[in-house]
Design goal:
The structure is a single chain. This protein is of the alpha/beta class. It folds into 2 domains: 251 residues, 3-Layer(aba) Sandwich (Carbamate kinase), CATH 3.40.1160; 150 residues, VC0802-like (2-Layer Sandwich), CATH 3.30.2130. The protein is 35% helix and 27% strand. The chain has 14 helices and 21 strands. The strands form 5 sheets. An 8-stranded mixed sheet has the order 3-6-2-1-9-13-14-12, with helices on both faces. Helix 1 packs across helix 3 and helix 2 runs antiparallel to helix 3. The longest helix is centred in the N-terminal third of the chain and has 25 residues. The protein is globular and about 75 Å long.
């Protein structure tokens, strides 16, 4: 008897009818002889509704109280799903984050999981019940409710799968797998049968929205196999597997030629340039310390050669925190001694990802040539072993995605399925 963790997102829980559908899927898995743990998100739109209510009461809400507020969305979902399962004849038991004891640090809104006490889940499973757990939430050592950030239910599911040693973690959404690029941007996008955790982590962190990046990082660390499926359409879906898993080699047969496996884009990007930074040891650290202390992630970083003892430093941050980044930088103006600061929010990041880049030369040339032939100017470039990212004018984002998809012939990747 295998153990399956299933996660259903907000779109899958958006109405009573959809919750009944989720219940039928979970119950069918249970009746097929599997032990089942279901992790659910708040109903679609509920988190935004709660945040809007809070904004009507205060402009600067306390992070602790926001976590208390937002956690109620998942509490509603687990109760409704448990009721639906019981109505369909199942023994179902719901658990909040603190009842499972998903213990986190105290970083409200972006908490990180420390430990999980899987005993309550294991006891309910031993009794033959379907266990329904609230995603997105946990509790810190002092008993305060915490939340894991946007997409945190993915992380809850993968972490639970690791804690209970599940055979697989199934992530259900309104798409039927992972695609070579966003099919809403390019109709030639193809479903990928199997992708390594390493490649998926790059895609997720670069803008692909199928899985939360932290959940993929957790899967890679604890060797959890993720199966991305559609709640509404039956199909084979896409497997995300640890790249050292021996089963992957068999499943990936015939895919050695896929140098690039996907194209990601992120329009939530801002480009900051700090002009006239003194070319002295420690100035770069001082520049980014305030951002790090405020939990603002910095991505692409470029420092120009110094001229007359001063240099320019360019970097990107998420567009929704750009104003805060500018505020923090300006607060450090005198301490750092830079001259001026520019912020450009009209940019986007487009990336090509593929483990095959390690052993295949010419990927950068093909990428830059394709963009150049399309008249798309590159503003910044960032690379790693398995990805190349460029920052471009946001007006050309979708064109860049299509051009690169064609340049690397991703519609011909072995193992993919043409978009219907």
């Amino acid at each position: 008897m295998s153990l399956i963790v299933q996660k259903f997102g907000g779109s899958s829980m958006a109405s009573a009818e959809r919750i009944q559908l989720v219940a039928r899927r979970a119950l069918a898995t249970h009746r097929a002889g599997h032990r089942v743990v279901v992790v659910v998100s708040a109903m679609a739109g509920e988190t935004d509704r709660l945040l809007q209510l809070a904004s009507q009461l205060t402009k600067k809400p306390h992070d602790r109280e926001i976590d208390v507020l937002l956690a109620t969305g998942e509490q509603v979902s687990i109760a409704l799903l448990a009721l639906a399962l019981q109505e369909q004849g199942a023994d179902a038991r719901s658990f909040l984050g603190h009842q499972v004891r998903i213990e986190t640090d105290s970083s409200h809104g972006q908490a990180r999981i420390q430990t999980i006490d899987a005993e309550p889940v294991q006891e309910a499973l031993a009794d033959g019940a379907i266990v329904v757990v609230a995603g997105f939430q946990g509790v810190d050592a002092a008993g305060n409710i915490t939340t894991l950030g946007r997409g945190g239910s993915d992380l809850s599911a993968v972490a639970l799968a690791a804690a209970v040693q599940a055979d697989a973690c199934e992530i259900y959404s309104d798409v039927d797998g992972i695609y070579t690029t966003d099919p809403n941007v390019y109709a030639k996008a193809r479903r990928i049968d199997v992708i390594s955790c390493e490649e998926m982590l790059e895609l997720a962190s670069l803008g692909a929205k199928v899985l939360q990046a932290r959940s993929v990082e957790f899967a890679l660390k604890y060797r959890v196999r993720i199966h991305c499926l559609s709640t509404f359409v039956d199909g084979p879906g896409s497997w995300v597997v640890p790249d050292a898993d021996p089963q992957e080699a068999a499943m990936q047969s015939g895919m050695e030629g896929a140098v690039v496996i996907g194209i990601a884009h992120d329009r939530n990007t801002a480009w900051l340039t700090v002009h006239g930074v003194p070319d002295q040891p420690g100035k770069a650290a001082a520049l980014f310390r305030a951002l790090a202390n405020d939990h603002i992630n910095v991505d692409v970083i470029i420092q120009n050669p110094a001229i007359h003892g001063r240099t320019d430093v360019c970097f990107t941050v998420a567009g929704n925190v750009a104003d805060r980044a500018v505020e923090l930088m300006n607060a450090q103006h005198d301490a750092i001694g830079f001259t001026t600061l520019d912020c450009n929010k009209g940019v986007a990041k487009v990336s090509v990802v593929g483990a095959g880049m390690r052993s295949q030369p010419g990927v950068a040339l093909r990428m830059f040539q394709a963009l150049g032939d399309a008249g798309i100017n590159i503003l910044l470039i960032s690379t790693s072993e398995i990805k190349i990212s460029v920052v471009i004018d946001d007006r050309y984002t979708e064109l860049a995605v299509r051009v690169l998809h064609d340049a690397f012939e991703l519609e011909k990747v072995p193992g993919g399925t043409a978009l219907a």
